[in-house]
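User: Predict the structure for this protein chain, please.
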Amino acid sequence: MLDRTHVAPFLRPDGDAITVEFLRDRDGRIESHLERLLRLVRRLEGRPQRDIAEALRRQERYVRDAARLNGIARTLMDACIFAAPAGAARAHVVRDALFTARGALWPPVHDDERLPYETAALMLDITSDDVARLLYADSPAERRLERAPRFSGRALLDRYNLGLARGVLLNATTVALTATGGWRNVFRAVKLARLMYTIERIGRGRGAYRITITGPAHRYLARPQRYGARFARILPMLTRARQWHIAADVLQQDKTCSFTLDATTLPVRPRRGRPSFDSRFESALAAEFSAKLGVERAGWSLTREDTPIAIGDTLFLPDFTARHRDGREAIIEIVGFWTPEYLQLKLEKIRRAALSNLVLVVYQTLDAGGAANTLITHATDAPVVWFKKKPRIGPVMEAVESVARRR
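Assistant: Here is the predicted structure, written as structure tokens:
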């Protein structure tokens, strides 16, 4: 991960704000150069880490900005897979034996340089060459390049620019983020990183919420470096959203500056991929809507997990949102888990959300105790669509029509 030394040369003051001079490839030459760096590192597979670092450092003669190359090299090295050489676990034993042998032969005399190695080799039942090889084999510089990255020069450029943005945010005291869509990935990353945060609604639009996160530079953090490493996981997830925005207070030379970032100012390609469903029931419902009803059904469209609902200090992310072109919406939540404890927590969250346009789609043979059906029915006034093998889009859309409302 890029640190402050890699980022500082590219910070630009702008009144009480700061900006970052990201690396932009306007004519393809930068991407071509990064491809050459990638090919160089691939040719060095099996070599120690110090050789890789030195080979990248020598590329300074081909570039105008050594500070840029330093950050790119760090980004590239972070993407490499290194492994300790064979026997590295015995390095401390070899050092103890060698230093003991050297101490017993003190003071040194002419031509006895090899004698401590030979003595240590006899003690350990290995060769003197093995003693020399293993002496510092546990050093990070001696780790062997097991696999070089296989991604493209453009991907390396994206990683570098993302690293610059994260490097700035390591100095943030507070970070406020908003997004359109992609909330599950963002919120999951925030929770898994064990960050301190608050949630507030900022308008009536869909997904109109702000998550304010305590930054790594906050004065009351006990372990800012460890917190910062966890905090760095957020930005890559945020770039998966269709639209996103960051507003941060950043410490810069004993002064607090504002720093803003969004999809238009960060030159990184949006990370897209196939939807990742949490269950086969979600996948089946989405597939049936697409196969039988197409993109729209009488003006209805179905989108996944893009309507976060704040409940205290957490978010409730319904599985789907059904939207009509006339502005009506309904949210769909699939219940397909097994334990009574989880079911009670799920129903309590639904009750606290107080949603008048909710449709529950429930697995009929839910193994959550004999009273599960009664519990679900009495926990909410929302219509319940039961299913045995997989949810059917017809009954679901009928329930959607009955509860949909305009925002």
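The radius of gyration is 29 Å.
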